[in-house]
Amino acid sequence: MPAVRVWDVAEHSQVAELQEHKYGVACVAFSPSAKYIVSVGYQHDMIVNVWAWKKNIVVASNKVSSRVTAVSFSEDCSYFVTAGNRHIKFWYLDDSKTSKVNATVPLLGRSGLLGELRNNLFTDVACGRGKKADSTFCITSSGLLCEFSDRRLLDKWVELRTTVAHCISVSQDYIFCGCADGTVRLFNPSNLHFLSTLPRPHALGTDIASVTEASRLFSGVANARYPDTIALTFDPTNQWLSCVYNDHSIYVWDVRDPKKVGKVYSALYHSSCVWSVEVYPEVKDSNQACLPPSSFITCSSDNTIRLWNIESSGVHGSTLHRNILSNDLIKIIYVDGNTQALVDTELPGGDKADGSLMDPRVGIRSVCVSPNGQHLASGDRVGTLRVHELQSLNEMLKVEAHDSEILCLEYSKPDTGLKLLASASRDRLIHVLDAGREYSLQQTLDEHSSSITAVKFAASDGQVRMISCGADKSIYFRTAQKSGDGVQFTRTHHVVRKTTLYDMDVEPSWKYTAIGCQDRNIRIFNISSGKQKKLFKGSQGEDGTLIKVQTDPSGIYIATSCSDKNLSIFDFSSGECGYHVWPLRDCHWHEV
């Protein structure tokens, strides 16, 4: 059920969970006194609630028929304003009633007098502060900054000179308007006079590794495309403006002097679903490492592969250097140079922005790093396999390997004595490539009758094995046979279970493989015999499916990620749960 959750910032803990909306929560706002929270549901919800959140009760409520995009409280907490499609409404709170009556009282609402702007979509609203506390400021999607008087009259408006306006923040001295193409404009709240325009963030498709000096950020790029500014908030104490852009990047600007704005902080993130994470392996000769220690790689539906490093001491031992755009992101690979998927076009309520239909097949589905740390293999949503040299980040291989998305990639470990890469896909095929011979095709396996969700190599009992599992509920155990042309894998065991098998990992001794299943159980199999050794519950919850399993380098623990958004760590031998948190989708151990 949709909820408004209140968190203690210092303790990182949830202190309230407010549930009344049925379809979703479009927007929320604290009252300046922090006594109340107002929440507005999605359009089909048609409810606006005022919560005494510490008591977990709704003190005032009413229906709203329009699609609401934003809400803002007045400085004296006597009213709040909602904005939306052809909608500006003032809601008045009688604190004497809301404080004393236990039952929910009706909210009193009065529409703003929109005049000739009545057909506009008002995307954001902010009540005035200080000398302008009686005014209410809002913006329209068409690019107008409007001011309403204390009588709800549309007093004046000015043009923002932008194609789309998304967000607004108001202080005693400034009005900040976030617009399309990375633009933020500053106005004087007293008279709506234009003051200045903030610097824009990085351009879409920027090689962040080359942005090592501030001059690179503040110098414009001809014909560049920038992400839209979709949210902003002003800190009057430090005079900092925090901006969120629709490529999921965050910038904090020092606006103490609007004519000389400086960047305080910035961070860049994936703008869409992250499908896979891969920890960069430890390389015996550090001089041969392409990435520094504590590095990892992610891929996403935004069609990028990103290289990260979480060491605070700086990047060393590689050709990559720290950039001024992110403390932890060191490189972005824009696959095929496609930047269309870099921006998130989804609006509150699940709607899409006009003309923003994205190709659902765009995106990188899986990544894997070779054991020597030199090559990075990736598979996309349409079945294309790519291999990049990590030293130069040049693409050395691109082949249309599958007819559908590549769900998993796996390099064989050095202990197998082989240099193989296996790619498995939704098209039910596994391709085995010889990485030591320019990725020539060694074999194609077609035993599975549905999507293949995981494939692993192992070396046990003097034999090289390949294990795969899939949505057909089958597990295939194969043994490598050397031939004149290389290596061929032949099936030795075929096991079927009554549940879909979503992910698999091999523990360090290579005796056992652990499989995460749809029924939330972890099944442990002996690799040599193909027999199931044990079964234990892989999630603390009663909902969802296990979508990722990973054993730690010692083989003592196994981590699981469940579709109910919970991460658990179990003792591999006993199956006892030792740790439980709310995580992301994927998980991976890092050896230290």
From TrEMBL:
Gene3D superfamilies: YVTN repeat-like/Quinoprotein amine dehydrogenase. It comes from the Eukaryota. Keywords: Kinase, Repeat, Transferase, WD repeat. InterPro entries: MABP1 (IPR055292), WD40/YVTN_repeat-like_dom_sf (IPR015943), WD40_MABP1-WDR62_1st (IPR056161), WD40_MABP1-WDR62_2nd (IPR056162), WD40_repeat_dom_sf (IPR036322), WD40_rpt (IPR001680). It holds the Pfam family WD40_MABP1-WDR62_1st. Residues 2-268 form the MABP1/WDR62 first WD40 domain. One of its GO terms (molecular function) is kinase activity. WD repeats lie at residues 296-312. Residues 274-578 form the MABP1/WDR62 second WD40 domain. This is Mitogen-activated protein kinase-binding protein 1 isoform a. The lineage of its organism: Eukaryota, Metazoa, Chordata, Craniata, Vertebrata.
